[in-house]
Amino acid sequence: MVPISYYLILSAVLFGLGVVGFVFKRNIITIFMAIELMLNAVNLAFVAFSREFNQLDGLIFVFFVIVVAAAEAAVGLAIVMVIARNRKSLNVEDVNLMKF
Amino acid sequence: MNIAMLVFIACSVMAIVGALALILAREPVHSALALVLVMISLAILYLLLGAAFIAAIQILVYAGAIMVLFVFVIMLLNAGEEVRTNVSRLAKWVGLPLGIFFLLEMAYSLFREYGGRAALAGGTAAPVPASTRDLSMKLFTEFVLPFELTSILILIAVLGALVLAKRES
Amino acid sequence: MEFVTHHPVLVVSLIKIAIALFVVMTALAYLTWFERKVVARIQSRWGPYWVGPHGLLQPLADGIKFLFKEDIVPPAADKISYVLAPFLALALALTTLALIPIGPATISILGQPTQLVISHSNVALILLFAISSIGIYAVVLAGWSSNSKYPLMGGLRSSAQMISYEVSLTLSVVGVLLIAGSFDFYDIVGGQSGHWVHVIPKWHIFPQILGFICYLTAAIAETNRVPFDLPEAETELVAGFHTEYSSFKFAMFFMAEYANMITVSCLATLLFLGGWLSPFPETGAWRWQLYLPAAGLIIAGIGLIVGGLRGVQLSAKLVFPVLGIVCLGVGYLCTLPGVMPVIQGPFWFTAKVFFLLFFYVWARGTLPRFRYDQLMSFGWKFLLPLSLINLVVTSLVVVLRLR
Fold it and tell me: Of A34, A40, A60, which has the smallest distance from its Cβ to B138's Cβ?
């Protein structure tokens, strides 16, 4: 069997990569994908913990995370569409109207 | 080295390669595909952890619906290659060290907390794999209020997406 | 040898995979022949006739043609995605078949208890949906990576269509799940055994007729078949998402489409038509049904021999009697006490799947293609509400019965 620490480290690595992607990417859609990557990493930790402590609550949380991610994707992509339509660009730096 | 370990290593390598590809790819469709790869390898890991139902909905909802939506939007907007700018150079010099530091810190604290644990994921006593029945019992009794709330959330999300995407004439 | 004794599950699975792959590949090839023949008959034509007797070698000829054609990759294409797409399509289409059982769980072959399924899972149904939902990427990627406008249109259309109809497809199945109370195919089929008034089998199709209709319609849309074949509408989009594909990559898309057809037919059989269960009661008076597989094969064998000898072509005269004798031999095998109980499940299963496949081809030969807006409004404004109504009514009935 695989020790839980391995799963958690994998989760941490994926989350870190998600953060790096979030900071680095310039395209709004890929930034969004980096957020999804972070959510996935957290899900992995939840499932691993659920198995470790032999409780189902972790799985329920994953379920909710997936549902919320679906809702988020719907709204987020609609926002991306609007931005693309108004700004004619998907570069996040062109969305600077609210910038201080 | 048993089969579970082999599967874990294969899947984690796949997931990390996918995550790296997500960051490094300049074509948004490639990034999306890389993310799908991450999701599928995570789903296999969930199977390994005995959570078959979660693995299935991970693929069904995440890879099969959400990511398809992403790809659809990318194709619809005809999103081309990413443009590198000055600010992304700043991100490289500041963001990369910070990102690596953050990662190392997390790995360190996790390892300190759980690395010494003799108990294995899946436990020494081999717990029963999470059955869908138990999961749904829990979902519809203990977590029924959050469950109903998420349904309202989805309804709002659908309406919000409609309002946003509607063209002003 | 040591490896075999140490990993019996692995070895048995590999054998099952090899057999299943062989059977499915042959079935795919002859499904194209069958479709062309039936559509030809519907349109008062002959269909394939010249390669082999009654065009029976046509699939082989097509396969050879595909293999030897030039494999073109358009210079503007996105190479990785372009190559990945057909492999993804075929691999996923074949993977789903691994979850489909074709016979009861309690069966023994050569004295060994064997399950007639490659991979048994207690969430098999949802896993199957999960795997087939990934299949969208093949179509979308093929359309996008070709870097050409018709494939892109096809890819866009198909992603929208498949997302829309997947909702109805999944919802139409939920009714069955509520009645069966399990994701496991063995439980779902097991719950359909028995009869009402001694004659009507307790298949889910009868209480779930609405769900069955929704499922069939959505399944046709999911597999991109006529009348929902907008992603590859050849009169508007040349060939849709696979316009730029040639040679074996094209053949892979083709095979994937037919494999998907088989998968959805198998699923419909398991969920609504009682899977491998016989439609007749299993009482003493109905014992003759055990000889049905043998009888079918023997009739087919005699027909082949007689038809072959009366045929005009020399090849028909040679090939058909040989096939007929093979059929007679297999038919005799099916009457042996060791084989007879084993063959029942697969026989009924295959018969039902075959009927559904015929239905598919029939629909293709009869119905004209929808317009894109009609397709969308049909999916969202008619099929989805219908499957929702079905779901609500079913859950009400299930709850009231539990009381």
Answer: A60
- Within 10 angstroms of residue C106's Cβ, the number of other Cβ atoms is 10
Q: Are C226 and C363 in contact (CB under 8 A)?
A: yes
pLDDT band at residue C100 under the 50/70/90 scheme: confident
pLDDT single digits (tens) C156-173:
877 788 888 888 888 888
Whether A31 has a pLDDT exceeding 80, the answer reads yes
- Flag whether C50 is in a domain: yes
3-state secondary structure of B81: coil
User: Could you give the number of structural domains in chain B?
Assistant: 3
Which H or E run includes C195? strand C195-196
Instruction: Provide the domain limits for residue C211.
Output: 69-277+336-402
The range of the structural domain enclosing residue B167 comes to 131-169
Q: Tell me what percent of the residues of chain C surpass a pLDDT of 70.
A: 93
What are B97-106's pLDDT values in tens digits? 877 787 788 7
pLDDT at B119 over 60: no
Number of domains chain C contains: 2
**Hey, what's the torsion of the CAs at C56, C351, C224, C258, to 10 degrees?**
-40
Residue C213 maps to a domain: yes
Domain boundary among C36, C60, C84: C60
Shortest Cα distance, chain C CAs vs residue B119, angstroms: 27
H/E stretch holding C112 reads strand C112-114
Contact list, C126 vs chain B (CB under 8 Å): 53, 56-57, 60
- When pLDDT is averaged across residues C54-82 and rounded to a whole number, the result is 81
Within-domain flag for A99: no
Residues in chain B with CB shorter than 8 Å from the CB of A75 are 157, 160-161, 164
- Residue B125: the pLDDT is 43
Q: Is there a single domain that holds both residue C129 and residue C24? A: no
The whole-angstrom separation of Cα C102 and Cα C150 is 40
Does chain C touch chain B (at least 3 C-beta pairs within 8 Å)? yes
> Per DSSP, what are the bridge partners of residue C108?
C113
Residues A3, B117: C-beta atoms closer than 8 Å: yes
List the single residue in B46, B51, B65 with the smallest CB-CB distance to A70: B65
pLDDT per position as a tens digit, C341-371: 777 888 888 888 988 888 888 888 888 877 7
pLDDT in tens, C205-254: 888 888 888 898 888 888 877 777 766 666 666 667 777 777 788 888 88
CATH of the domain at B51: 1.20.120.1200
CB C102 within 8 A of CB C16: no
Chain A nearest-CA residue for B108: A9
Task: Collect all residues from C whose CB is shorter than 8 A from any CB in B.
Answer: 78, 80-81, 121-123, 126-127, 129-131, 133-134, 136-137, 140-141, 143-144, 152, 155-156, 159-160, 162-163, 166, 183
